[in-house]
Amino acid sequence: MTRQQLIEQIQAKKSCLCIGLDTDITLIPHFLLDYPDPVLEFNKRIIDATSDLCVAYKPNSAFYESRGIAGWQSLIDTWRHIPSDCLSIIDAKRGDIGNTSTMYAKAFFDEKSSGMSFDAITVAPYMGSDSVNPFLAFDEKWVILLAHTSNEGGGDFQLLKTDDRYLFEAVIDKANTWTGSDRLMYVMGATRPESFALIRKHAPDHFLLVPGIGAQGGNLQDVCRNGLNKDCGLLINASRSIIYASKGEDFAVRAREEAMKMQKEIALELERYNSLHAS
Amino acid sequence: MTRQQLIEQIQAKKSCLCIGLDTDITLIPHFLLDYPDPVLEFNKRIIDATSDLCVAYKPNSAFYESRGIAGWQSLIDTWRHIPSDCLSIIDAKRGDIGNTSTMYAKAFFDEKSSGMSFDAITVAPYMGSDSVNPFLAFDEKWVILLAHTSNEGGGDFQLLKTDDRYLFEAVIDKANTWTGSDRLMYVMGATRPESFALIRKHAPDHFLLVPGIGAQGGNLQDVCRNGLNKDCGLLINASRSIIYASKGEDFAVRAREEAMKMQKEIALELERYNSLHAS
Predict the structure, then answer these.
(1) DSSP-derived 3-state class of residue A85
(2) Beta bridge partners of A20
(3) Residue A138 DSSP SS3
(4) Do residues A166 and A158 make contact, with C-beta atoms less than 8 angstroms apart?
(5) Count of A–B CB contacts within 8 Å?
(6) In angstroms, rounded to a whole number, what is the distance separating the alpha carbons of residues B202 and B11?
(7) How large is the angle between the packed helices B129-136 and B98-109, nearest 10 degrees?
(8) A180, A179, A181, A159: which is closest to A170 by C-alpha?
(9) Which residues of chain A are within 8 Å of residue B127 when distances are taken between CB atoms?
């Protein structure tokens, strides 16, 4: 999915919601355990109940890998179920030396090789340019690079000062030399509202993938008011607060309600931004 | 495998060689393609031909993931074939927020959950303490944290100065507060001989996993003379130079010859260290 197509989806759906499929087999409704693949059944029903309200789905690779072969199969089949009008993001936080990153790219971008071809992958920056570039070698795929993450330890190194900048700013400045905002996004935790102005100095045009709303405590209005740009420029992720809204048979209905609540808040913020910036 | 058991293996085998199983199905001898699982067959023969010469095997997860379900099965079966007197390391470069790192730990440490239970995993530090600690919550397992990597981009961020230290030094200083040298190793590229003295200032006792010998151009003697400590303190990795020593039917014999060459060099360096430091 190109940047332009993503922007069109956001405008059509009045939403920049991304739903995180951090599907834990021990947390899904019990009745699903009777299905051949309970995780897949859960994901399908969540997707079917929410795909008009969001523009992206983000399976979290760890939750699938933890179940070995069975989990990997759930991941492949979940990818197949993500509708083509939604950006498919694999949250995998990969990154290694060049020939190894190429293999990771094949794992998630090359359907012939692995059975999956996501639109985008999250990548860790620590190993530098040649650990990221192999992902960009795949046409029309996105890299979503970790900048400033939502977790407590996200301050341990990302907030170290190098010269006059934080490390996460240095990461953005460097990565901006590798490719443009049509192939690269940054991860920016919703729990860091004070850093949004800073990130927008370094990456005014880029889309930011923003986790940390909901279970982690980030605030949607703060994120929008500090992060929106003329193309929206945000993908706001929620995982647990939507997918585990209920543990009963009504889980998909309740997930839809939670997603709609967020979509409506986002629509208001998009409208507010547009009216403030109307010429 | 405990630190003491690892040291005993090193002393018994006069070797600190780690063999990297970066097994690419397009690079293995053609006759193996007739086997039900060519990658597994290749790995088994490499392991059987070399396990008296090395103390660790390190499958590179990316090479298995790139082949989807089939690759994941090869990885599980390869793990089963690693003898118990060798440290089994999964080179996976994982790291994410706490609940997600716990899932990655289950993927590679919890046989009941995923079918595999490696002794050690490589972890990326960018997301900080709570991205690493979940791996340490598994008893008797090792974290091998990226410090200064062998690739060219390893300088992009790892060599940024924060106060009076490089970022990779700050990573080590911080990580040393999380656990001791009986559970934690550092990745230190062989292509960085000038940094070994520095890393030994911050981590005199830790084992260092050293990739970059062979195909990447690092020098074994330099690494030993700058990195050995009283317990050896090094795991020297070679992948391509050993496993692809021949593409013919003699590939395992040639792999053994290459491994033996390295083992002999290492044995000489261990002896040299001991005679220099004999009291």
Answers:
(1) coil
(2) A58
(3) coil
(4) yes
(5) 196
(6) 25
(7) 30
(8) A159
(9) 93, 124, 146, 149, 151, 153-154
Give the 3-state secondary structure of residue A124.
coil
- Put simply, whether A76 touches B (Cβ < 8 Å) is yes
Distance CA B23, CA B107 (A): 20
CA B147 to the chain's CA centroid: 13
Distance CA B226, CA B194 (A): 9
- The 10s digit of each residue's pLDDT in B95-141 is 999 999 999 999 999 999 999 999 999 999 999 999 999 999 999 99
Residue listed under structure tokens 């050690």: B120
CA atoms within 13 A on the CB side of A13: 26
Residue B166 and residue A196 in contact, taking contact as beta carbons nearer than 8 Å: no
Domains of chain A, earliest start first = 3-273 (3.20.20.70)
Active-site residue list of A: 93
A85 alpha carbon, distance to own chain's centre = 15
Contact (CB, 8 A) for A136 and A98: no
Angle formed at CA A98 by CA B265 and CA B232, multiple of 5 degrees: 30
Q: Which of A21, A130, A156 to mutate to test the interface with B (most CBs of B within 10 A)?
A: A156
Which among B91, B104, B149 is the nearest to A127, CB-wise? B149
Please tell me the distance from the alpha carbon of residue B95 to that of residue A190, in angstroms, as a whole number. 19
Question: What secondary structure, in 3-state letters, does chain B show?
Answer: CCHHHHHHHHHHHCCCEEEEECCCCCCCCHHHHHCCCHHHHHHHHHHHHHCCCCCEEEEEHHHHHCCHHHHHHHHHHHHHHCCCCCEEEEEEEECCCHHHHHHHHHHHHCHHHHCCCCCEEEECCCCCHHHHHHHHCCCCCEEEEEEECCCHHHHCCCCCEECCEEHHHHHHHHHCCCCCCCCEEEEECCCCHHHHHHHHHHCCCCCEEECCECCCCECHHHHHHHHCECCECEEEEECHHHHCCCCCCCHHHHHHHHHHHHHHHHHHHHHHHHHHCCC
Q: How far is B156 from chain A (nearest CA, A)?
A: 5
Look at residue A229 and give its three-state secondary structure: strand
Running DSSP on this structure, what letter comes out for residue A165?
E
Nearest by CB: B124 against A65, A115, A126: A126
Longest dimension (CA), chain A: 57
Report how far apart, in Å, the C-alpha atoms of B131 and of each of A99, A156, A221, B178, B231 are: 25, 11, 27, 11, 29
Interface ipTM: 0.97
Residue B90 CA to residue B102 CA, distance in Å, equals 16
Q: What tens digit of pLDDT does each residue of B160-213 get?
A: 999 889 999 999 999 999 999 999 999 999 988 888 989 999 999 999 999 988
pTM above 0.95, yes or no: yes
Residue type, B44: K
